[in-house]
Specification:
mainly alpha; rod-shaped
């Protein structure tokens, strides 16, 4: 009996390490499979990202190539004129946008500072503040403060006159932008007409109405028109943005002029009271 019991214990002890080894090997295999699945997933993600980047680059290259091809097909002479109108129009637009952006200030806070200095009797300090501040609002205020010792009618006329000068400076160059806006589609239509004339000349020389000849001439004509209209639309968007900034600055100038006249009036009344 003792021998039988010892044999059962020995068999149980022999079985325990064997089961543990099997379990450990199974866990290792599962971990290896999970690692391989994760690596495969990461590989798929990297491959997808690479395909997306390649597709984006190919699309950009295709768009550039397509524009270049259409530009060449649309008669280099007229397409060059349309491109020149675009470049010059954008140059004027960018110059105006930079000038108007630099002319914008916080007009309300600026007028509060000027009003505080004038009410304190520091007219020279208010003038210095106007000189050190950019923009048409500060220039108009400086023009009014330089005539603070004159009558209110003279001060008002001076502010109105100088405000007209500043408004003209804001609109400088806008006439050129409108010129290029109207010129671009006109050049496109001119290319259309010339393309049609070329098509009819080719028909006359061929002595027969050939769809290939007509299609070639019509294609050149329509491409020049399309590019001309696109240039006009692009410039029109910039022009409307410029007009909105000019209107904003003009409104600031008018409000600041009224505030300045009120400030000068209070200053004169306080001086007369003393």
């Amino acid at each position: 009996m003792a021998l039988l019991t010892y044999s059962r214990v020995a068999i149980a002890q022999d079985n325990v390490p064997h089961d543990t080894t099997i379990t450990t090997e199974g866990d290792s295999a599962a971990m290896a499979l999970a690692d391989s699945s994760a690596a495969y997933t990461m590989g798929d993600s990297a491959f997808a990202d690479g395909e997306e980047a390649a597709a984006t680059a190919q699309a950009e290259a295709g768009l550039h190539k397509e524009l270049k091809t259409r530009f060449i097909e649309g008669s280099a002479g007229f397409m060059s004129l349309v491109a020149l109108a675009l470049v010059l129009g954008l140059a004027f637009c960018i110059e105006r946008i930079i000038y108007l952006t630099l002319s914008e200030i916080n007009a309300k806070k600026f007028m509060e500072d000027v009003d505080a200095k004038v009410e304190a009797g520091d007219v020279d300090g208010a003038k210095e503040l106007c000189r050190s501040t950019r923009g048409p609002v500060a220039s108009i205020c400086y023009q009014g403060l330089t005539r603070i010792s004159e009558s209110m009618d003279n001060i008002e006329r001076s502010i109105v006159s100088y405000g007209s000068v500043q408004a003209a400076n804001l609109e400088k160059g806008c006439s050129w932008i409108t010129l290029f806006i109207s010129m671009a589609p006109s050049l496109g239509f001119l290319g259309t007409v010339i393309g049609m004339v070329m098509a009819f000349d080719q028909i006359r020389l061929a002595g027969d109405i050939n769809t290939t000849i007509v299609a070639a001439g019509m294609k050149v004509a329509l491409i020049t028109t399309i590019f001309g209209i696109i240039v006009a639309l692009v410039l029109q968007v910039f022009y409307n943005y410029i007009l909105s900034k000019i209107e904003h600055l003009t409104s600031q100038m008018e409000e600041s002029s009224i505030t300045l006249l009120d400030t000068i009036m209070r200053y004169k009344l306080s001086r007369n009271g003393e």
